[in-house]
Sequence to fold (327 residues):
Amino acid sequence: MQSAAPFSRRRRQILQWLSTGCGCAMCGSIDAQILGYDLYATEIASKTWAVHGQPEYFEIGNGGNIVNVAFIEVPDGIVVIDTGPSKRYGEALLALIERTVPGKEILRVYNTHHHPDHFLGNQVFQPETIAAPQKVIDNINAEGDGFTDNLYRLLGDWMRGTLVVAPGVALEATSEEVGGRNFSLFYLDGHTSADFVIRDDETGVLFSGDLAFLYRAPTTPHANIPRWTAAIETLTEIDRDLILPGHGPSDPKGESLSQTSDYLSWLDGNLRDAVGQGFTMNEAMLMPIPKRFAGLGVVRTEYERSVVHLFQDLEDELFQVIDVVRD
Fold:
């Protein structure tokens, strides 16, 4: 797993950012000279590198660097899995790829879904190389601007110049040959309405996107928990040698699938119990989290966000609306 940047360096970056003003996209250029991602490539399989993000939430201190992305050297070039949360991140990723595998052309960029930390580096790459299922493309076009606006508010100048660029290639085949390497493609849903999973058939690495988290609490802004659970069951049955989850360390044992499934099962049951007992949303947020999830990154924050995301729909599902007829 990628080691974090030294604390003193991160602290210095934060203090520099604070001392230069608000850091928003319209402020002076000094901010752009200070902020920079320290990305590291970890070889997780033969000629396959992961760039691991921090198990945190979006904040100025991490610049939104919370996501796992990857790149693969195939015989004729490079394949990239997801592009990060900003143009600045995409530029740092591209530079890292060029240092690691110099002189190779980027042939394909896959976007696993439409959450902003996975696709907002797209504009650094050629649009005709970026591919995803049509539903992912539709989701990016429908919600990408709103996501981008929100990250500008959260991350300030880290987002300078970031624009939404949707994939230029819509995929529907179950496999694709890219640069002399075959990739199996899986079209699922549950974390969002369209979750795209890629397996490198040469190395057996499965790139799960956010259908799998490891040692970091899952996010649920578009979650359908029964569909997500079914997707995890599908992933469990796929032949693989290693999983790169959307967040967390590389996973040779499938722990990311079992841990994510366990958390989702508890979350759904806990919130159903809260609704059934007549708790308010605020009361549900105060409910205890089991000790087995205590080590998950940002678990309390993500649990509280999940209450906001899921509680009302559960109320609508569990309580019938009764029409009262008055004389």
